[in-house]
Specification:
By secondary structure, the chain is mainly alpha-helical. The protein has helices spanning 19-24, 59-62, 70-81, 87-93, 105-110, 124-130, 142-150, 163-178, 192-201, 206-220, 249-261, 272-280; strands at 34-38, 113-114, 120-121, 182-187, 224-227, 241-243, 246-247. It has one domain (16-63, 71-280).
Length: 291
Amino acid sequence: MFDSSFYNAGFTISGINDFLPFLQSIPKNKYPNLLIIGLDQWMFNENWDSLEGSKEPTYWGRSFQSNPGSKTFFSVYKDLKNGKYGVLESVKRFDKNAQVYHVGLHSVINNTGIRRDGSLQYGKQIDKLLKSDTTANDYRYKDTFKRIKTGRRKFQYGNRLNPKALVYLETLLSYCKENEIYVVGILPPFSIKVNEKMKQTGKYRYLEEIFPASQECFKKYNFELWDMTNLKKFGSTDEETIDGFHGGELCYSKILIHLINNQSKIKQYVEVERLKTDVRNRANDYIIFNY
């Protein structure tokens, strides 16, 4: 997809106050020329994260564990004993000669995990969605709708944007400017039905404030911010989403094409015609390539 070397830092950031210390944990000679950040909308909601304090740059180095903790060990052992995992299917995935080599129990059982480029393979979730299997995670957004109904798990209600979030954003962008890192920010999409459901409640007014307030920060440093909250804006549909608040590879490829067509600096790193060809020849409406 990209014509230059890159690394994907998924699963490293939780709150908006994590970006800067994570960046500071990286040696400066490894800094990227361009940084793409996904600004999840709930990062700006005080009722989800009050932003009291932040992690130290050393946090990420200490977080790696080569061995599972006792709680994880006993949980896995209990599931194995109760026959939760299909033994035959699991053994097949331990085959080192297989097209995809699986590392770790979660990867073996669910055909899910982090690829070498840092991106996520959804595996079993994709298989279930293609079969319209009702046991797929968040099938027809049932779980996301429950979150909205209860105002929990990243969908806490909020009438106003948390001003602390803008302070952390401003500090991050200032640091990136000082270190010659060009930033492209993206407000990621919700499914169309989820957007409609949130709007119907009238309890997510803070969402409307995020782009205009954040855009001022980005403009100050001559960086880019793109509001991709609505799938329709870049020609995607609910049929291309993994769940209520995650698009699939096709969805995000369309975002990339939209940015390039609108003169984002990302165009320097992507051959857009090749990307369009990949989209036309995609494996299905969730993934571009068969892995």
